[in-house]
Design a protein that fits this description.
This protein has 399 residues and is of the alpha/beta class. It contains twelve helices and 15 strands. Helix 1 crosses helix 3. The longest helix is centred in the last third of the chain and has 18 residues.
Length: 399
């Protein structure tokens, strides 16, 4: 920061340490202040337009600066356009004698597909066999970085350990619905007030960071602030159902990749939505940023038939641009602001399923490193017949 201050005439610097949240949203909005997040060694730097070239030149010359990238907008991405006709449930394949003879109970559950009956469990929880797991994610901290949360939702009251808003002028309360839905899928209760169970890690400890406004958009700086806050709070999992489009062949953002690496070193696994820009079968778009970072798990969406959803992006770019695994992302029921429920579709809905399963794995293996949790998660997926480009290692499975 001293090097940049001397050469690029950057604005005054405010340091954010640990779990500090006071005025961070306002500081990020001010054009006369740069914000340094000491926990992750990253900063949002404000300079006058005529100083931008000097900033980049100085950053390239300074050995202690790894990367300097322009700040961009990031968006929540549920599917709001008209969808295809609902797909009926059917197994990925069915050969009962062979399955029983050669496969485990986990594989049987995946091979036969989710049950059509959602009276007790949503189809997504059945597909990932959460209904067969005795694990609950007890005491594991799961951070959902999104549009906030309905803190008064009867299914979530008493479960939210900490919350913070990094959106200027907006409280952590969710005026969009996206964040509450994602939190519900990852950590909803064993016995919801109404309807089938929809939450994977029903006894996890919830950390809710509002980084997207009520219209569903935010800046890289706000995302960075939420990540730093979650890591400082000891989150074992960070779930980010957000992103921005990338072009075919575009490289992953170095800033997010470095932050993800530092989070992994501190024991935190980050999962993110692969994006919903495709129109299958003819058009498959590349995995969005920041899910396209090598150290962030990219999650694609499956329909009830356990096939890639028409909107789900694919691994068509280079390093980091691959899909890591697939999870239920079509017609997913979860919590909604106002104490109710709604069904949404998108890779945004698939991502918190993965975050919940990571919490289960962390409960079962409390001393595991973040890298070990990632490896266990990916290796435990059930192989599907679709290309790895679309489903990665396969269908998410609960331990």
């Amino acid at each position: 920061m001293n090097a940049l201050r001397a050469s690029a005439d950057i604005a005054s610097v405010e340091r954010v340490r640990g779990t500090e949240t006071a005025n961070v949203a306002e500081l990020l909005e001010r054009p006369d202040v740069s914000v340094l997040f000491e926990e992750l060694g990253a900063a949002v730097v404000e300079v006058r337009p005529e100083q931008r070239h000097a900033l980049v030149t100085s950053a390239e010359a300074e050995s202690s600066i790894i990367a300097a990238e322009p700040e961009r907008m990031v968006y929540a991405s549920p599917i709001t356009a008209p969808q295809q006709a609902p797909t009926e449930f059917f197994p990925a394949y069915r050969s009962d004698e062979e399955v029983v003879a050669h496969h485990t109970m986990a594989e049987i559950a995946a091979a036969q597909g989710p049950a059509a009956d959602e009276e007790k469990w949503t189809w997504g929880l059945q597909a990932i066999r959460a209904n067969l797991s005795s694990l609950t994610g007890r005491d594991v901290k799961v951070a959902v970085i999104d549009t906030g949360v309905d803190t008064d939702h009867p299914d979530l009251v008493g479960r939210i350990e900490a919350s913070a808003s990094f959106v200027p002028g907006e409280a952590v309360e969710d005026g969009n619905g996206h964040g509450t839905h994602c939190i519900g899928t990852a950590t909803g209760p064993a016995t919801p007030r109404q309807g089938p169970r929809y939450g994977v890690a029903c006894e996890a400890r919830i950390l809710a960071a509002k980084v997207l406004n009520n219209a569903g958009s935010g800046t890289d700086g706000q995302i960075l602030a939420g990540m730093a806050w979650a890591v400082a709070h000891g989150a074992r999992v960070i779930s980010m159902s957000l992103g921005a489009r990338v072009r075919p062949g575009e490289l992953f953002p170095q800033t997010y990749e470095k932050l993800a690496q530092r989070a992994l070193e501190r024991g935190t696994v980050i999962v993110a939505a692969a994006g919903n820009d495709s129109h299958r079968p003819p058009e498959i778009r590349p995995v969005s940023r920041p899910a396209n970072c090598p150290s962030i798990l990219a999650v694609s969406a499956l329909d009830k038939a356990l096939t890639p959803s028409f909107f789900s992006n694919g691994g068509i770019n280079g390093e980091g641009g691959e899909v890591n695994l697939a999870a239920p992302g079509r017609d997913v029921r979860s919590a909604a602001p106002g104490g109710g429920y709604q069904s949404l579709s998108g890779t945004s809905m698939a991502t918190p399923h993965v975050a919940g399963v990571l919490a289960l794995l962390a409960q079962a293996n409390p001393n595991a490193s973040a890298a070990e949790l990632k490896a266990s998660l990916v290796s435990g997926a059930f192989p599907l017949t679709q290309p790895a480009r679309d489903v990665g290692s396969g269908l998410l499975q609960a331990p």
